[in-house]
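thread: overnight batch results

M.L. [08:02]
morning all. the overnight job finished for the chain we discussed friday. pasting input first so we're all looking at the same thing
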Amino acid sequence: MNVRSQWPPIEGLGRHPALETLAGRQQDGEAIDAFLAGQDFPLAEPGMVTFAFRGEADHVHLVRWIHGGVDRLPFERLGETDLWLLRLPVEDSGRFEYKLGVGRDGNEALIVDPLNPARAGDPFGENSVAGTLGYERPEWSLPRGAPSGWIDAIGVESRAFGETRGVGVYLPAGHDPARAYPLVVVHDGDDFVTYADLPVVLDNLIDEGAIPPVIVALVQTRDRLGEYSGSRAHAQFLVHELLPALAGRWRISDEPADRVLLGASLGAVASLATAFRHTGVFGGLVLKSGSFILDEAKLDRRPHPVFHRIARLMAVLRRAPDLPGTRAFVSTGELEGLADENRALALFLRERGVDVLFKSAWDGHHWHNWRDQLRDGLTWVLRPDDTKTG
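M.L. [08:03]
and the structure it wrote out:
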């Protein structure tokens, strides 16, 4: 196989210099060694990325969990060599996570990319990360020596769930017990800490003055599908049990504008349901990649019972009172199957009197996507006068 004939320039675009060099050489072990040496994989160029895998295999696939399903793209072997290549059209300044499906002797192993050291974790394990041309991890998500807050642990007695629930509470550096602080309640809080670097982000944003010092409650559940898909008990726990427990130990602002609910995926559903069921308690919403179903006709593509529960919840919320005085940040990833639903959610909220900022990234349903949009979300709901775009 000749690389030059396999991959002509697309729509006037050139090719990565390493591919040009490989195409101009005899394709043997020495050429492949030279091609792989000193390169950052995948190779990024305007509008394209190129993946490589070296090893004997029956097939190699790029496996991505995007658009609500599993996306598989086959690599092609370079001639008679053990080098496999895949050149993929992409959007610049984006990212996605993936694994390689390597087939041998009738079996397939899903592995992280051996040539790509970039990784991202989630509760199911670790994935490789492909950053397209121009993508950079936000500097404010990296440790940079800002004064550090700390996380306390408290137990909250819950009649709603018949148990004592452990809740982590982030307190900002220099916390003053005499001062009333804004509050952010984060669904899947432990996961935001582990996979989205939440404490580092908070430390940095507070230190630079992008957001005021805040107290952050980190709530977690063992039953996300049941509790976060619109459970009344969950909303009762947050409003009638968690808030009093927090206020009994620390000073929390009484102003709804200073109280924020934040969640991703099903956590966004739980946040929205709580805001509608207890109007006037929380004045800020940060809703990331929410698992919403506003168009029931789409349920035929989402047979899981949780989406049917959410569709019924949204039908109820359409009849609920409006949410004037509320600010909401709604975000999505263009590579997840929920992008259109989150656009529809932003419109729905605007129609209900909510001041909405909507943002989209060329990314998937991933924790690092939610991390990368934390700054926009928190500054919008905590400092609306400074960030309002009209």
